[in-house]
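I am still getting used to backbone structure tokens and would like to learn alongside you. Label the sequence line and the structure token line clearly, so we can match residues to local backbone shapes. Would you write everything just below, so we can both look at the same thing?
***
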Amino acid sequence: MYYNTEKQEGPSLSTEGDGLMSSQLIRQYRSVNHPRRLWKMPTPGISEFRALAYTEAFPLLLQSAQAGVAEAQCMLGSMYQLGLGEVTVDEAQAMQWYYKSANQGYSAATKNLAGMVWPISSEAAGALNQLALQQDSEAHRLAQAG
């Protein structure tokens, strides 16, 4: 999720005088308040997970995952797959969270899901790995587009 928590500097959108804004003023406003200038705020649970504080991370990740954050969904899948912290191993839960994350294009989740289905179907795992490569390519393309 992206948030803009800082007051932006730059022109305001007041319409003093004749009530019309000049195109120059509009361009200045857009350059200051453009969505690309917003930054990513930390998602609850992710820093705790990365710090290996799994017990603290779990309830925060669960909240973030339920809100639809793909990275949190993938991390929750890992916690269920590996039994991290106080979480009991539950492969069905792990696959559900990986699926939700992969369905949003998060390639790490797609790869983890492929690893889980490999013993059941190497063909399905291969297809998931191909999808993960496509997701990586798309993510790279979007990052380059800026």
